[in-house]
Amino acid sequence: MADYKKLADLLYPEATLTIEEIEKKYPARNLPEGACVTRLAPSPTGFVHLGNLFPAVTCERLSHQSGGTFILRIEDTDQKREVEGAVEILLSSLKRYNIIFDEGATADGEVGSYGPYYQRQRADIYKAYAKKLIAEGRAYPCFCSEERLEEMRKEQEQNKDNFGYYGKYAACSNLSYEEIEEKVKNGEKFVLRFRSQGDPSKTDHIDDLIKGRLEFPENDIDHVMLKSDGIPTYHFAHSVDEKTMGVTHVVRGEEWLATLPFHVQLFKALGFPLPHYMHVAQLMKLDNGTKRKLSKRKDPEASLAYYYEQGFSAGSVMEYIMTLLNSNFEEWRIANPTAPLDDFKFSPDKMSISGCLFDMDKLIDVSRNTISVMTAEDVYEQVTAWAKDNDSELYDKFTADPDYAKRILSIGRGCEKPRKDIAKWNEVKAYVSFFYDDLFTQSGEFPETVSSEDKLEILNRYSELYDENDDQETWFGKVTNLAEELGFAPKTKLYKKNPELYKGHVGDVSMVLRVAITGRRNSPDLYEIMKILGADKVKERLENAK
RNA sequence: GGCCCGUUGGUCAAGAGGUUAAGACACGGCCCUUUCACGGCUGUAACACGAGUUCGAUUCUCGUACGGGUCACCA
Asked: How far is the CA of A253 from the C1' of B20 (A)?
């Protein structure tokens, strides 16, 4: 066609913004050498998938570790899927994981000078580039109806041809200016398609920072760039936005690999430099013996909200994500148990090429470790914050006497080998229950090796001899003496050697006390528990257990 | 179906042309121990299969199988 320029104006007369103006408005960023500019580009559906955290963390680390910029761009080009308040939900969920953006959409607008950051507001930018491609003969309007495309697909199926709008199937690619003009004047709807010059018998490649060299046949499909409402498809918006926003590293799920050839082609046609690509593998789940993608409909654990509701601390989830994201993270964490996450050097080449299964056992283990090195103060703050939304009873107890709660939480904490009782905040209530009378339940069985007379004797005598000023050694010495006087071995080993000489051993006596005081057979250190409960409460429990 | 990606124990993974093929989780045993938790020691368990290159391949190449993704005016 002779005058593509004329065609561009015919199609989008309203678009007057020029490339020069755009380039002036979005100059190259002035950043230190090696700084990465990354972006998270979700569609505002209101659902935050656990899988979203992988690219999000990757982008965040990459940009912030390099002194770069992390952008939130909202891909709202599909109105149908849009959900009100989605950006706020996203922002607040990510904030819990310390994922903070430097630029882009915010709860009430946006920040940064490379906006707008909502794609629908960038229509004039896309159209400017679209017109450029039209003027160069690299894009054309397509008037095919849905029905026509459906027919085409059936035909392709029959002919065993590849699907898509290309070659001889691309009916609108050869329309004359006059034909187009007539259709436009009749008000016929059209989409704008890229005119592919790709030859699928030739291969192209890119070097993915995660996957390595990726080879693929050149794309020959005339994909849609602008929909009939003038809003771009993901592909076109992707190329224009990464360029105009100065994004250096594109981190996204590997489901985009299939359309990568088209993206490469678009960047080249537009004269844009290719960003570095990082395609991250998908998170899978084992279902009936087969791997499958973690599904937002079927799997509650696919939702980020689930982890919060379940009481996983954000720190724990982050630790787990990091172990999956960088294979050397775990090793580093073992060497630096209390170092802040920021100290870890995140690197793309330590990322896994293949998708992994989500492993709840591992998350729980990681979480236990993470929580075990936290201070009682931190645990208190986090549990309380969680309980506020999820467990009002616990919240009331903890806030009524913060000091008491913190003393409970400091049992076996802050030492060389801390206890690892808690993996999730929803376990805390059961863990601390016996410290609160109305949560206390007498559920433990007294040891059957101890007769009821001896049990009574133990409870009575202990009530007298317990002195909360005793140090741990003195205290246990008293317990041992009591045991011996009643005919129990003072050491477990003695009993095991000659069981016939004793009624039982000191452990049985302790067990009687433990069950009486805590209501259960297992507990953290009794001595510390009693200190926190106080002598009066201890004696009351002993009395009640008789 | 076409195209693309992948495949080291149950899971996450390190590794490298020659290794006793790390480590973590889970599971089992033992030890420590007044219970539990912690900790220590220890055990079971893996390079998908078939060719080729090579003195030698789990590592490189090619096939096969299996798994995943994608083929929209969704992202």
From this structure: 40
ipTM exceeding 0.90?
Answer: yes
Q: Which residues contact A232 (CB under 8 A, 6 or more apart)?
A: A77, A119, A123, A126, A130, A225, A226, A240
What's the pTM value of the predicted model, to 2 decimals? 0.91
User: Could you tell me which residues are beta bridge partners of residue A110?
Assistant: A105
The correct CATH number of A4-16+123-280 out of 3.40.50.1980, 1.20.1110.10, 3.40.50.620, 3.30.470.30 is 3.40.50.620
Strand B: which nucleotides have any atom within 7 A of a protein Cβ?
A: 1-8, 10-15, 22-26, 33-39, 67-75
Name A residues 67-86 whose Cβ lies under 7 Å from strand B.
75, 77-78, 81
Please name the fold of domain A452-545.
Arc Repressor Mutant, subunit A (1.10.10)
User: Is any atom of strand B within 7 angstroms of residue A492's beta carbon?
Assistant: yes
pLDDT along chain A (546 residues), means of 10: 84 92 94 94 91 94 96 92 90 93 93 93 96 95 93 90 92 92 94 94 92 92 96 96 97 94 96 96 78 80 90 94 94 92 93 91 96 95 95 96 95 91 95 93 84 85 86 89 88 84 88 92 93 90 86
CA distance A41 to A39: 6
